[in-house]
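User: Can you predict the 3D structure for this chain?
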Amino acid sequence: MILVAAAVGFAVGIGVMVLTFRVLFADRGEFFECVRYVFTPNWLSLIRGEFRADYLGTLKLTLWFLSGILPGGLAAWALSRLAG
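Assistant: Here is the predicted structure, written as structure tokens:
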């Protein structure tokens, strides 16, 4: 039963991530820009004058990941507890 709970949790997490993608990112270009900011050191963004964009891009990407991990993990945990 634990595998079923994990599979359902995974499906819930992916589903929530798909639904929240358009809320947080206008298009794929903005998504990849946020990924670029995650791998750019903060001091370099500060020198380039992109610190605010770096901070917001990192925040968006973090929120997007958490929007999938938390509901998926919670669904898997709840189903495993219900199964006993």
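The helical segments are 2-24, 28-39, 42-48, 51-83. Residues 19 and 36 are 22 Å apart (CA to CA).
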